[in-house]
Specification:
With 283 residues, this protein is an alpha/beta fold. The chain is 53% helix and 13% strand.
Length: 283
């Protein structure tokens, strides 16, 4: 089962704290001596080492300089930033409305050349029809008990954002489980329209649509839906949060996982056959 994002974030912060503590001890410095070398009160050193306070990039650079470990500063800064920003609570995001979430990601989408998307439960947002998106976002509004249900406006914003698949300069590598085709989150007409659109979108030159058949013998599996933006960030969707992974080692693991999943998928005529089969099952 997915680890709680709050627990994951705390564990990541503790890992940074442990590495900083190790550097201090290896340098033979006490908490007070390290603080004096860095120019702050010793209580700050204690808070950082006990993962009660996240260090800033400047804090880490001073710490590494004081312990003669300048070569480790860059990696530690990246790891710390990842720990402090690795998740954003859904409730914090939706406070400004579901439409705001859709519109806030337009710039990140425009800056991405290669999208890699894996989903085990739903059609990815960039390939959703308005009716399907409306149903999905309506469920989200209900689950999170939003004071204002703006799922209609959010669905329109999602579709507007999705026009990027027709723009030059972007490629979309999409892998979904066959079960996604049968997950009926909308009424029959909306599901039929969505499945029909997958046939159309999957034929676009910039889109590679792979489907992992349910009968396929698994060589790899994953529990979470995730999207990668070039090689710079992975966005992972959990129940309570969206986790943004930027640490190079973790990014590499997600990219390897995606390639394993992609290798199990079928494409072209075989993928279209699975979609047509799902459309027939609706009726």
């Amino acid at each position: 089962m997915p680890v709680s994002p709050s627990s994951s974030a705390q564990a990541a912060r503790e890992a940074v704290a442990q590495r900083l503590r190790d550097l201090r001890k290896e340098a033979g410095l006490t908490v007070v001596q390290l603080a004096a070398a860095c120019g702050w009160h010793y209580s700050k050193t204690s808070r950082i080492e006990n993962a009660l306070t996240g260090p800033s990039a400047t804090d880490i650079r001073r710490w590494c300089a004081a312990t003669c470990a300048d070569g480790q500063a860059r990696e530690l800064v990246v790891q710390s930033i990842n720990a402090e920003t690795m998740y954003r609570q859904w409730r914090d995001q939706v406070r400004a409305g579901l439409r705001h979430i859709q519109e806030s990601r337009v710039q990140a989408f425009q800056a991405t050349e290669v999208f890699r998307m894996y989903s085990s439960s739903l059609v990815p947002g960039l390939l959703q029809t308005e009716g399907y998106a409306r149903a999905v976002l309506g469920i989200a509004a209900s689950v999170h008990d939003l004071p204002i249900d703006d799922s209609e406006a959010a669905a329109r914003a999602r579709i507007e954002r999705s026009r990027i698949i027709h723009e030059q300069g972007h490629r979309f590598v999409v892998v979904i489980e066959e079960s996604v085709l049968y997950c009926q989150v909308a009424d029959t007409d909306a599901m039929a329209a969505q499945l029909g659109y997958l046939l159309t979108a999957g034929a676009l030159p910039a889109v590679s649509l792979g489907i992992i058949p349910m009968a396929t013998r698994r060589t790899h599996w994953t529990e979470e839906t995730f999207h990668t933006y070039d090689d710079r960030m992975v966005s992972v969707e959990l129940v309570t949060a969206e986790v943004n992974v930027v640490q190079p080692g973790e990014l590499a693991e997600y990219l390897k996982t995606f390639e394993r999943l992609r290798s199990m998928a079928v494409y072209g005529a075989e993928a279209r056959g699975l979609i047509l089969k799902a459309i027939e099952a609706l009726h």
